[in-house]
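note to self: dont lose this again. the chain is below, predicted strucutre after it. 82 aa total, dont forget to put it in the shared folder this time
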Amino acid sequence: VRTLHHYDKIGLLTPSIRLENNYRVYSEADLLKLQQILALKFFGFELKHIKTMMREEINIFDHFQAQQQFLEQQIKSLKAAS
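---
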């Protein structure tokens, strides 16, 4: 619940309906968006970056490639340091 409230507060996932008692009601589309957010978060993307990707409907596969390149560079750096 706290995560959903936080996502609403930062504008990442706004519920489709807010009742008079301030309860949030999420649609099926909202839940699909939440699944996408959680997947991107799992792959290491920051919330502010996810918000930008979702807002601008950026091709996520391009971001996965960029993330892969970043991780490969980190691996090289760690190997060189050891």
